[in-house]
């Protein structure tokens, strides 16, 4: 998972979403001084705001080295479902990082801004965001150039990491079938398989790719290599249920917003996984129209934030 500390901002440790996270993240979640969920690292507890501040500090440094000048102000984006306390915690994180936070804006609003949709008066927009760790769907309405979030829904346990794990499981199975060796308990081999799973990206633009991992493991008879051709059709078959999973949250968001799929005027895609042809096909079937594809889905939210910053 993308292991975003963002998800831990403000919920108390007893919150069911935190309970669920505890078993799925590679770090320890502990009870903070104020009863909130904190992260433990090197025997020390950090609040999610502190972790977010470290990330913002790093981004500030990256921007400064690229621009060759000081960066002191920022527009920060947050998920549309963030409440006031979570937004305030994000502002605090910006301040800890040495930034003056000019504005906190919703991620789907930023994505729509990147496409200039604030000029489309009276239109209803669906923002479909399938990222590394989570899925979010937001229904927005534009009035007087202002976006109103009519509804939001999603799945906090669906993202690129889940697609990668599905591919890793397949590779482990194929290797075991061919060599009789189970790589499941070999941490180093699993790490290499996870890296290889990124080759799924190539299948968004081509029908076939080759996974080639020399010396993946060894036994008495010598080293073993993993070489396998992976087709787009095979990948789509492996992750079909994952691709279908956003449909229910999308339908729930439409219902909560009081609109039908046919009443959605524009569909915006966010997140790297939305490049996958099968994902785009499901979105098109669901909303009955082609989604916007002009901007880079990885950068579209940041681009919108930059436009907002002016």
TrEMBL record:
<keyword id="KW-0346">Stress response</keyword>
<dbReference type="GO" id="GO:0140662">
    <property type="term" value="F:ATP-dependent protein folding chaperone"/>
</dbReference>
<dbReference type="InterPro" id="IPR018181">
    <property type="entry name" value="Heat_shock_70_CS"/>
</dbReference>
<keyword id="KW-0143">Chaperone</keyword>
<dbReference type="Pfam" id="PF00012">
    <property type="entry name" value="HSP70"/>
</dbReference>
<protein>
    <submittedName>
        <fullName>Heat shock protein 70</fullName>
    </submittedName>
</protein>
<comment type="similarity">
    <text>Belongs to the heat shock protein 70 family.</text>
</comment>
<keyword id="KW-0547">Nucleotide-binding</keyword>
<dbReference type="InterPro" id="IPR013126">
    <property type="entry name" value="Hsp_70_fam"/>
</dbReference>
<dbReference type="InterPro" id="IPR043129">
    <property type="entry name" value="ATPase_NBD"/>
</dbReference>
<dbReference type="GO" id="GO:0005524">
    <property type="term" value="F:ATP binding"/>
</dbReference>
<keyword id="KW-0067">ATP-binding</keyword>
């Amino acid at each position: 998972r993308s292991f975003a500390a963002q998800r831990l901002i403000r919920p108390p440790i007893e919150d069911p979403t935190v309970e669920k996270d505890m078993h799925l993240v590679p770090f320890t979640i502990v009870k903070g001084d104020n009863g909130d969920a904190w992260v433990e690292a090197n025997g020390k507890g950090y609040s999610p705001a502190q972790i977010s501040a470290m990330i913002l500090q790093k981004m500030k440094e990256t921007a400064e080295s690229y621009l060759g000048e000081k960066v002191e102000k920022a527009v920060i984006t947050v998920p549309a479902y963030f409440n006031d306390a979570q937004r305030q915690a994000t502002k605090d994180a910006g301040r800890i990082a040495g930034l003056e936070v000019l504005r906190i804006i919703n991620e789907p609003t930023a994505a729509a801004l990147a496409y200039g949709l604030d000029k489309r008066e009276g239109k209803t927009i669906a923002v479909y965001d399938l990222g590394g760790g989570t899925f979010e769907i937001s229904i927005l309405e534009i009035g007087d150039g202002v976006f109103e979030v009519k509804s939001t829904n999603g799945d906090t346990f669906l993202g690129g990491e889940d697609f990668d794990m599905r591919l890793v499981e397949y590779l482990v199975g194929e290797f075991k079938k061919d060599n009789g060796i189970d790589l499941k308990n070999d941490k180093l081999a699993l790490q290499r398989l996870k890296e290889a799973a990124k080759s799924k990206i190539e299948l968004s633009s081509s029908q076939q790719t080759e996974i080639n991992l020399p010396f993946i493991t060894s036994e008495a008879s010598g080293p073993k290599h993993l070489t396998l051709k992976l087709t787009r059709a095979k990948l789509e078959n492996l992750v079909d249920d994952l691709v279908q999973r956003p449909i229910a949250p999308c339908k729930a968001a439409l219902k909560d917003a009081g609109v039908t799929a046919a009443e959605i005027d524009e569909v915006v895609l966010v997140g790297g996984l939305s490049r996958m042809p099968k994902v785009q096909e499901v979105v098109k079937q669901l909303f009955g129209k082609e989604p916007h594809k002009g901007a880079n889905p990885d950068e579209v939210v940041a681009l919108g934030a930059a436009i907002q910053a002016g």
